[in-house]
Each structure stands twice: as C-alpha cells, then as structure tokens.
C-alpha cells in the first residue's frame, strides 16, 4: 500500500522539526543581523507599536515589519530570548520542505518532491539559515511561491500539457500576487524587482511573445498592493509619509552603494553558492546544460529555475554590497536542479557525469578537513597565540573553553558521508546516494550546531554578551566604545531612554551623567580612551575591556 500524501507531509514535518528546532537557544544571537532584528521585535513589544520599527528606540526604516511581527509573536509565547528569536525560521524550515515536496510532487511525482525537499534540507546554508534569526528564509519562500504560482498561471493560460491544473488562470494569478505582497512586506520591493526581471528575460526567451493576459497582470499587481497596504497604507495614514519615504530611500541606496565591510570580489556570490549550498550545488551542475525533456512543462519549469538562478546571482553581483544573504534566493533553483539531476539519472533520462562525484568528493573532503581542524586547533589553540599578531584575536584565543577532542566526530561523519555517497554513485544507485549525501550533511550541521558552534562563540562575543546580561534590571547606561554592536540593547533589555543625552557618547564619557555608565571596548582600542580619567576599568576577558563611570552625585 502506497503511503498517503498526508502521511508523507506529517513525517516530513516531524523530521524537519527534529532537525531545526533543537538547540535554537543554545548559542547567543550573533551581531549584527540576528541581534538587530531581535531587538526590533523586542522594542515592538516594549513600545506596543506594530507598524513602525525601532532599534535603540529610534526609527529603523531599513526593513518592513512582516518578520518582526513573527518574532514579536514568538517572543510573546516563549519570552525575550534566543529560542524565540530563531523559532520563526525553524517554522519556515518545516513549511519550506513541505512546500517543496508538494511542488515537486505536482511537477513530477512524489519521488521528485522528496528529492527536492532532501536537497534543500540537506545542504549547508539552506539548513543553517533555518536555525537563525534573520529575515531571508521567509522572504525567499514568499518570493519563490509568487514565481511558482505565476508559472502555474502561465501554463494554464497557455494550455500547457500539465495535468492537475483544474483552476482558472485568475486563481493562480491571485495567489501569485498574495505571495508577492507578503515578500514585499518581509524585505521590500526587491522581491518585485527580481520577479519582473525574470519575467522580462523569459519574454526575451519567448521571442517577444506575450505569455500573460494584461488584465491578469493588473490583477496580480492590485492583489500584491492590497497585501502591502496593510502596512504601507496604515503607516502612512497613521503617521504621514516620512517613515515610508525614508524606507524607500534606503531601498534605493542598498542597490547603489555598499555599506562598510560589505564589499567583495566580482565572483563572490558564485563561490558562496558553490560552498554554501554543498552538496546540492555540485549535483546541480549537469542540469545547467541542455538535456532530454519528457514534456513541454518539464523543459519550461527548468528554464524558469535557470532564469531565477541567473537573475539573482547577476543582479546581486552588480549590487555594490556583497552579503551572503543576497544570493540566498538562488538556493531554490540550485536545489531544484540538484534534485532534477538525481531524478533524471535514476530514470535514465540523463547521463551521469563522473566529474560530479569527483568534485563532490574534493569539496566534501575539504569541509571534513576543516571540521576536523576546528577540533584539532581548539585543543592546541593556546600554543598558536604567539603566531597571531592581532591583539584582540590573541585575547579571544586565550578564552577558557573546554574541548575534549570528540568534537572531531562531526568531521569524521562528513568524511563518511562523502565516501559512502561516492560508492553509491559509482554503483549508479542514485536515490540511495542522494539520501546519503543530503541526510548525512543535515546530521553534520545538526551536530555542529549542538557541540561546535557554542564553543566557538565563546571565543568571539560571549564575554561581552554575558556582561550585558548581568546589567539587566540595573538602572544604568550601557554602551560600546570603538566598535558598534546591537548587543547592549537586546541583552540588557534596555528601557526607552528618558534623558536624550544618553545617545551622546561624549556626554556619557565627560558629561554630568545621571546614572552609572558601563562601557565595553576591545583590548586593541582601549588605549584610545585613556584620556577619560573618570573611567574605571572593572576587568578584562577574552579580548574585551569592561569600564565603568560613576555619577558625580553623592
């Protein structure tokens, strides 16, 4: 008896939950993005204002509110903590794998649906991001679903040979518009930009033939606009145009300038995708080329996925800022193409290429060596300090972190995954190979998140964050000197300032302060503040220097 679709969905949901939910709160949130977004959600709750976003109790117009609504709801349920901040993306992981299973099943069959879900859930960055507290997983899912429903609309409107499309074209156009509106509410107009660029390139590919009804296109835009007006319209009606205007200006600057520390070389995103989407990235390579197609829709959907990949990667190569998140929407086509390779190999509709196994083994071996090296270096890290010339890094490396050596099991498991997977590829046992590579990689990520990342974090930011946590409930000011961090806001549970002078660093250092003030700086920057004689050093730990200034009042 064949397993019912509902049973597969429930099983997939349970497995995804077991991979994505445990250990969400095991590690502090990371600067900048995770803490930044969590703080926006915390202040949303604190101020009871769900239309305008704030950080450090100042308007923050860089992002729309959809993800912050999710995080604030999570924080209402689970409290102000790391688990609550990351939980929405764990849910997104569960939903995404189910969506890909359903999409793959509708496109081909259950086997393909399972392969696509495996490829996405069992690749490095796609899996890791479901354990994070950043915006992109939900944004990517909404944007992909908008494009997916538009493809179904296109097939229905143009009478493609695809069974199961029993709704009228307008149905698919409306759903495409709904998901586009949600994508815009999650991260901004970049979703519509990518969508329209893909449609434009497909128009060229289609030899300038219009493949949609203009009234349906207008309906798509109207539906998307109505969804976005739940925020854009309400915020403008309530508070005027200033906040929305600043938000739109920021979106424009994002594409025309780079932020500090966000530059990179021209091929940045391709390297990020190659390594970050391992092993799917390498198995996708054969499907980038022309192949044998079983139907018109088989060829067409692959073309759409290729267009999605190239538009995203080329667009964000042109954009001045180089950030890993920007190309993450390409994970959908990359994992589709990886599943497509395995599916076609298994059906003998595409020839297996030996170079794929070789490249996967090489990159997998490098990743395994890196994971093994982390444990080996950690056991001997103090002996390496004299060879490092950065003062802050030296102090980081001196942190008291307990390593047993068993952490290397993660690297050994990665190596075993690569070896077993390669043997199965050589035997042309493609479905078993896919399961080995993707499930093995998912387990590697799970174990790394549980036993390696918490220890690595202790070398970087843990000392500072623990200091901030100790200030919770204390009537004081807390800030950083010589570097920027969102951690003092979130981890002290900062209250809305009463005295506007508290935003002025010079006043905190030299002015007539009305509360004790704590400063956190780094060992390589503390000398820059020696002239401030009112500062008293409390202690140093792991590269951070903790200072305090008392009030003049007795």
UniProtKB/TrEMBL annotation:
Where is the chain membrane-spanning? 6-25, 83-102, 114-130, 137-155, 175-205, 212-234, 268-289, 301-318, 324-343, 355-381, 401-422, 434-453
- Which intervals hold domain Glycosyltransferase RgtA/B/C/D-like? 63-225
What is the protein's membrane topology class? Multi-pass membrane protein
Q: Provide the Gene Ontology terms for cellular component.
A: plasma membrane
For the keyword ATP-binding, the answer is no
InterPro entries per the UniProt record, alphabetical: LipidA_mod_glycosyltrf_83, RgtA/B/C-like
Q: Where in the cell is it found?
A: Cell membrane
One GO molecular function term of this record is: pentosyltransferase activity
Entry annotated with the keyword Cell membrane? yes
Keywords, A to Z?
Cell membrane, Glycosyltransferase, Membrane, Transferase, Transmembrane, Transmembrane helix
- Origin, by domain of life? Bacteria
One Gene Ontology BP term is: lipopolysaccharide biosynthetic process
Coiled-coil stretches? none
Q: Which PANTHER family match?
A: MANNOSYLTRANSFERASE YKCB-RELATED, UNDECAPRENYL PHOSPHATE-ALPHA-4-AMINO-4-DEOXY-L-ARABINOSE ARABINOSYL TRANSFERASE
Full protein name = Glycosyltransferase family 39 protein
């Amino acid at each position: 008896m064949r397993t019912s679709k509902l049973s597969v969905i429930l099983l997939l949901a349970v497995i995804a939950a077991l991979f994505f939910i445990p250990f969400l709160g095991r590690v502090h949130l990371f600067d900048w993005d995770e803490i930044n977004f969590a703080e926006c959600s915390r202040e949303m709750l604190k101020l009871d204002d769900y239309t305008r976003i704030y950080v450090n109790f100042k308007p923050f117009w860089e992002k729309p509110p959809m993800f912050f609504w999710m995080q604030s709801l999570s924080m209402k349920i689970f409290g102000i903590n790391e688990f609550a901040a990351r939980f929405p993306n764990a849910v997104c992981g569960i939903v995404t794998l189910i969506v890909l299973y359903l999409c793959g099943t509708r496109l081909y069959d259950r086997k393909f649906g399972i392969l696509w879900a495996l490829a996405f859930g069992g690749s490095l960055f796609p899996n890791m991001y479901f354990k994070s507290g950043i915006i992109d997983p939900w944004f990517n899912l909404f944007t992909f679903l908008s494009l997916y429903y538009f493809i179904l609309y296109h097939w229905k409107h143009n009478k493609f040979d695809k069974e199961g499309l029993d709704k009228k074209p307008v149905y698919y156009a409306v759903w495409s518009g709904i998901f586009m509106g949600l994508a815009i509410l999650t991260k901004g107009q970049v979703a519509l930009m990518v969508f329209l660029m893909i449609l434009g390139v497909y128009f060229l590919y289609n030899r300038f033939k219009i493949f949609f009804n203009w009234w349906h296109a207008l309906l798509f835009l109207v539906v998307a606009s109505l969804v976005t007006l739940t925020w854009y319209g309400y915020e403008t009606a309530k508070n005027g145009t200033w906040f929305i205007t600043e938000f739109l200006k920021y979106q424009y600057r994002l594409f025309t300038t780079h932020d500090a520390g966000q530059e990179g070389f021209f091929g940045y995103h391709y390297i990020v995708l190659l390594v970050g989407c391992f092993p799917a990235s390498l198995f996708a390579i054969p499907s980038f080329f022309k192949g044998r197609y079983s139907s018109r829709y088989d060829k067409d959907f692959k073309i759409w996925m290729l267009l999605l990949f190239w538009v995203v990667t080329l667009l964000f190569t042109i954009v001045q800022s180089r950030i890993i998140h920007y190309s993450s929407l390409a994970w959908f086509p990359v994992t589709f193409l990886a599943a497509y390779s395995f599916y076609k190999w298994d059906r003998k509709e595409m020839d297996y290429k030996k170079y794929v196994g070789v490249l996967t083994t090489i990159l997998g071996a490098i990743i395994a060596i890196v994971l093994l090296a982390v444990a080996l270096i950690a056991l001997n890290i103090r002996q390496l300090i004299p060879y490092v010339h950065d003062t802050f890094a030296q102090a980081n490396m001196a942190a008291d972190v307990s390593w047993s050596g068993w952490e290397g099991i993660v690297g050994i498991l990665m190596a075993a995954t690569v070896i077993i997977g390669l043997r199965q590829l050589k035997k042309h046992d493609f479905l078993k190979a896919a399961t080995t590579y993707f499930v093995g990689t998912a387990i590697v990520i799970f174990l790394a998140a549980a036993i390696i990342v918490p220890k690595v974090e202790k070398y970087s930011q843990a000392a500072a964050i623990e200091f901030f946590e100790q200030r919770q409930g204390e009537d004081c000011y807390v800030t950083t000197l010589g570097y920027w961090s969102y951690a003092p806001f979130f981890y002290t549970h900062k209250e809305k300032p009463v005295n506007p002078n508290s935003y002025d660093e010079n006043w905190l250092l030299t002015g007539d302060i009305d509360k004790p003030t704590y400063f956190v700086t780094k060992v390589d920057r503390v000398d820059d503040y020696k002239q401030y004689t009112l500062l008293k050093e409390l202690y140093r730990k792991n590269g951070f220097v903790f200072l305090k200034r008392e009030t003049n009042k007795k």
